């Protein structure tokens, strides 16, 4: 079935119905910063009263009819927006009755938004056309800018003014808020109207565009018709039906190759001509593209298709975006950047598209074919073309629309073929579309079948999806109200079994900076796609259901957010999986829903102007380059294109990385919940540097202004504050001496794709405030001398809250059922951090850059340079080793002998040789200390020689062993395998069977040929590979090799360690040096480790010895977890690990191996159901409180476990568990014991929720050694459900944690005595007041206290009152003002002096 787009959309006017003018961008941004959601309005236009209008204005014009027209006007920007609404025509008389009701919703809740209403007369000309003449207008202000102004809601009597509304844009009215002095009213002419809020409109706001006047009688697809004729008065939604699009293909004519080739030529020519106009003289502006411009041309990066449901007014939900793939001879391949496509005939979509539609003739499925191009930016330079930065360009190529519910539509069991359109016709996406001229051949055929071969087509199968779940319109509305950290389109429901990620990505529209990145890597230029180091890093994991709600706005999937914690779900009524229903009595595992998400990726926020101005006014240290010039400022909200070639070509190879912690701001909600800290400190770990814990930072409040960032000032050990030098600056020097050979590109990859995890702590209570992250890609200099960026980071924490269990439950088994705790992410504050990178170095050092030094060879060949024996004479040392003169090596090298000629020329080999020489000299010096210092007398020398004579054989044997010993220096990291090949030679004239023995199991021999081949390919080692090299014999101590006389073979060795010795983790601030001294020796590498491999002949004598000096290096941490758990209990944790399917495996699964640094921790991975994501299970033994256990988990995705794709750092805080049952509003006391140690401590206790938990004693007290101090916890929670709180006992002088308690609260809501419902107007700044009476039920005089569970919404006139028995008291209520309509349920608690609840009242407050 072939359909034209114009035929498919047969409603009147096509898409012109929804055409409107958008509001001013500045006004929209100002409204978005102040308010969060739209508000619905109802405007009733009653009548126009004017006794003199017919005689004065319409004299001589018979059959004149009048009409009201309305539109919105931005008074501050002098800008009309929306669309002009027109009423029905009415006859002219002294009182013109319109009785029209308008509805609209807007989020521009700022002063200066006006409704302009104009009275227009319509008369008929002689030629039959109509003439419209304005007869007067009036304005209605929606939001008052002055608190003294009358309310804008209610009945209005607006005067009509002379002139036309176009006069409002006159220059004299600019910056004018009062038009009374400029507009002349018409005598006795007025408009009667009524305006009020219409909250019911918010339920259907997804069906209507914003800022659009709509009448109730207009046809709106998605709304049920009303018997009264006004469907918007009490709107009701039609049922959404699920449908799916399958086997979708797109074809362009005359062919896809020709169309794309012509499109690229046109765009390249436009870009080239624009560049000529900017840079070339006029006589050189007209020429063709040359060969030198080929590498700088525009390329196709992605082919995307937007699919949405359109109802003539707008999209019912945000259009879905899918990636199309090229189809070549029945096969497909991923869309990738190309300059011209190969012999592909069409574009295809493998996966299906799920849609929710309403049964209405005007409902249309619309398509938009969009191409993403990558174009070069910047001027020509001496650098190569690949180092030129590139920008992303989006261009709509074709669009089409199809109405499936029209009478003539018959799509059941048939393929739909829709003709795509192009050119300047209006389209629902409101974008410019490429013209159809030149892309498709003109067709003169009238037959639709013949038109198929000459027009651009999209083909698909459309079918209903009864098993699917249609998206509710309310859910669609909710998705529009969600904040920037939530995305409903990519998060499946928690109870649904997850399927593997679809082969064609689906989700919301991508930003421009995402288009500049290949799939799986954020904002990476395509010039780096062929680098050899790229393949060694796995692609990011797919986002988990909870973590995907925190996607970056311009990062295509960060590995920081790909993990979700899991817990058991044994809630009654949970759906049983199909695998359990059909296996009889066999017990199977249930799918685990995620209930906890780690620190999400953090979206760069647009800081307020006042906050940025305040930070600029503070004299923070400037970031300047090596010439003293201010570093270039980068905007974290803008995309950044990373080009490794620019970093390689930079002559400033040394990097000084600067982190400046400037200010911190707490949110009002966080302050109300957990109080406002006075000191904070920050912990993090950057690259291979040791973990950093900053010193205490005092929050210095600004003078007189609330809401501004509080500047951070360092606190010394004596408690003094460095107020003169605000902020904390930490520096990390990464130069040639710090980086190992070949590590530069790994460091650049770390900066380009890593997000630095930061933990922010309360400096006094040592409680975790929250976590955040910094995108390190803005530290890339890209050839610049220095760069800096200011980050405003939201500090987030994870809060657990379970469902409320009523006190009076009718379900007898409800209490025993396990209800999982829900998880929500809470914004605790904002941290302001400035990052910078300062380059250093000269032109002379360019040739000795780190990346140009030769990498450490993986082939170890025994020679004089790496031999352990360096010559010398025998000594009578207890160890039997020879004594070498200190200057032996230097004298021999200067003599020009053979050893000097064999000395290595490269600096890396010399550095390794010097390191091993220094190690050997230290060992010999330590052994020499044990020798007797007294010289024996002459008479005793003969006795000494007789004693030493039997030891000559031992000394000679030791010297020979040293002569066949080869030294090798190895840098090793946790979990990463270091590959090497030792050249073993048979020195004998007879064949030998050599056995290999290693004194450390971490250094092993690779006996598998496939594994050997893998490491050779990974390290690009071009040495021969021998199959079946090793002999296998039962009972052999190690691998054996058969060698012919004088034969040499390469023995593959691998060093890999999974153990990591970590010291006791202390919780508290540190004192890091902030000056230049902090740059010296920052890595603090632990002591070296020596591993010896012995190659023994058949007579057990060594043929060769390899002594490997292993120097451990700090490892890179990809994800940090902090878990809190009761003491002395096993922690059982499941971490969901969604993986990307591996090409070549039929089941689409990837083998995952897990290793843990602690052998006492059980760690494994498994999949509960086929196709489900894999789970990593941890079982960690408990420890006493307040210990903190630290371990590492390595996730391997390659078969041979060469390098971990993810390395997790997990902290487990063990706390003493206290279970308490409470009732909201009522105080409950609980006692805990604090035991003293061996010293006297000054202790202070801090609760995590000061408003709900109080500790007695509240101040500082002394805890003697061995004493037991009773702590009384006064709990008074205000929210029902299962909640968790913390109490820390801190050493006040040393800021060290002594004890910690985990309060597990089961909180119930009391039964209200009475319930009230009241309505509060949404206007003004003073709020509203109410009162109700309370009678003392006792016979004696009593004192009562008043509390509320929402103190931000309700305050009492008096928090305490005293009343005689039987008397009544009027309780005064004060409701806070609000600008947002809605409803809230507020509980009022009347407690006695013991904080026991006497009465509970429930208030249902409706804000309208």
From TrEMBL:
GO biological process assignments: negative regulation of canonical Wnt signaling pathway; protein localization to ciliary transition zone
Biased composition annotated in UniProt, kind: Polar residues: 511-523
Location of region: Disordered: 467-523, 890-911
Domain C2 as annotated: residue spans: 23-153
Pfam families: Ig_NPH4_3rd, Ig_NPHP4_1st, Ig_NPHP4_2nd, Ig_NPHP4_4th, NPHP4_C2_3rd
One GO location term (cellular component): ciliary base
Highest taxon of the lineage: Eukaryota
Name of the protein in question: Nephrocystin 4
Organism: Oryzias melastigma
